[in-house]
């Protein structure tokens, strides 16, 4: 049996620096509920308003699961991540894709020119920030690099406290959202299998930042965006704690209709 490694990080950048070398390591990646993740990512990639000639930016691509599904659908697919190790690993994993580019940077200081992208994606990232002001700062920079007729997809933004009432309640919500079978598989792949197989487990800081929908709609409006709330009813129960949004520039003749 392989020696068990415990990968502990003090912050999210450090977590991804540690995790990056394992992005193509089946032992660690089986720790994730890949089936559910892939299903959701595919669902997102298929529904985003992207055309084959689009330039797309994925902010905080992580292990690149969503990025890989998006890259074949667009002319240019760029990723920005604060973890230099993650960027280097993604560059090497996707070296055969001619239309991709990764740069080190953060959501609040995106290393691209103004008005560069037709679509900007930021999925499961903003809740890692320390304060809501940091989220606003990031949203400003996402808006800066997005073209006037472009769109921004903000996924997995908690709209209420996920940990304030305790970890057990948080797990109870996940059980409801996923259903028993998927939840059991998730728990088993994250905890049980690695323990039984002596595989590495990554731990990183749990954060509790959230933005209620009304606040998010207001801050988006300040930036000149109107918001569609995406409810992924097609693939699972709606999340009890997180929202997904598609932002487009406000049209002169009023609000868009919600797409749900
Ligand atoms: C949970 S992963 C999300 C990965 C991917 N977007 C997904 O949905 O699976 C969080 C990602 O956000 C990145 N990240 C953390 N802080 C960030 C920041 N300030 N700006 C941009 N990305 C950040 C991490 O390095 C990591 O790649």
Plain-language structure description:
The protein is of the alpha/beta class. The chain has one domain (6-249): Vaccinia Virus protein VP39 (Rossmann fold, 3-Layer(aba) Sandwich). It is built from nine helices and nine strands. Strand 3, helix 5 (84-93) and strand 4 (100-104) form a beta-alpha-beta unit.
Mean pLDDT: 85
- The SSE string, one letter per element, is EHHHEHEHEEHEHHEHEE
Biggest beta sheet summary: 7 strands, mixed
Uncertain runs = 254-260
Which CATH class is shown? Answer: Alpha Beta
The unique ligands bound to this protein are: S-adenosylmethionine
Give the overall shape. globular
Stated plainly, the CATH topology is called: Rossmann fold
CATH superfamily: Vaccinia Virus protein VP39
Please give the CATH architecture. Answer: 3-Layer(aba) Sandwich
Oligomer: single chain
Domains (count): 1
Number of helices: 9
Strand adjacency order, main sheet: 4-3-2-5-6-9-8
Structural class: alpha/beta
List the helices and strands and how they pair.
Elements: E1 6-8, H1 12-20, H2 26-29, H3 34-47, E2 55-59, H4 65-70, E3 76-81, H5 84-93, E4 100-104, E5 117-123, H6 132-145, E6 146-158, H7 167-178, H8 180-197, E7 201-203, H9 213-222, E8 225-230, E9 242-249
Parallel strand pairs: 1-7, 2-3, 2-5, 3-4, 5-6
Antiparallel strand pairs: 6-9, 8-9
Helix pairs in contact: 1-5, 7-8
S-adenosylmethionine (SAM) binds next to helix 1 and helix 4.
Summarize the structure.
The chain has 260 residues and is an alpha/beta fold.
